[in-house]
Amino acid sequence: MPTQDDMIMQDFMNNCAVKTVLATVMGGFLGAAMGVFFGAFDPMTPTEGEKQTIVQQLKKAGRSTLSKSYSYAKGFAAFGALYSGSECVFEQTRAKHDIYNSAYAGCFTGGVMARSSGPQGMAMGCATMGALSVCMDKFMELH
Amino acid sequence: VVPIASQEMEYRVELFNKMVSSCYEKCMDKKFKDGDLNVGEAACVDRCTGKYWQTVGIVGSMLGAADAQAQQQQMR
User: Fold this and answer.
1) Chain-chain contact of B41 with A141 (C-beta, under 8 angstroms)
2) Cβ within 8 Å of residue A98, ≥6 positions away
3) By residue range, what is the domain housing residue B22?
4) Where are the transmembrane segments (chain A) (predicted)?
């Protein structure tokens, strides 16, 4: 039988708000890491032909990496929050645990992330993200 | 008094077992990919027990009303 502590922890983790917050934080970290990783590949061309010292070039590269990682972090955090929150809400509403929760959550996330490109873009985003999340879940064999 | 209490205890145990068994059958995914309850199953068990308990209440009150009516007719 699960202990009282086990049950409290399970209740805490099965909460939709907690899941959303966790996914946002993890998405933020992942986005920052990816920004730092991809920022290292940016071409560091000297501006206006001026010869800048190594320190100045490094500082410029560091600033661009920071801004890039911040924007990546925001995107990934939003994505994580949308996906996790919508999947939790769908699962609680349906009271079932199967693959359709991931599909609906992926469709919702894709549609919202593509909301600036009209209904066709939203439909494409929905289909793409839904298919992607179904494939990922099948691959991770959670369902 | 003790036989009544022991019978009441048996009824309660039977109710508990039936409730757990029926909600388990209805709510649990039998593939057992994980040992912990997920969000959907927890919500399902919550609602299943709530509905079961309400059903017990309604049926119990109806039985009590039928009993009271039968007793009243007997006393006349």
Assistant:
1) no
2) A143, B29
3) 1-75
4) 20-41
d(CA A106, CA A104): 5
Average pLDDT, chain A: 87
Number of Cβ atoms within 10 Å of the Cβ of B39: 21
Residues of B whose CB is below 8 A from A95: 27, 40-41, 43-44, 47
Contact B37 A14 (CB under 8 A): yes
Among the partner-chain residues B27, B34, B40, the one whose CB lies closest to the CB of A91 is B40
Give pLDDT, residue A11. 86
Quick: pLDDT tens for A64-80: 888 888 888 999 999 99
Number of domains in chain B: 1
pTM: 0.79
User: CA-CA distances (angstroms) from residue B30 to A78, A95, A143, B39, B46?
Assistant: 34, 15, 11, 15, 18
* pLDDT score of A94 more than 60: yes
Cβ <8 Å between B39 and A98: no
CATH number assigned to the domain comprising residue B17: 1.10.287.810
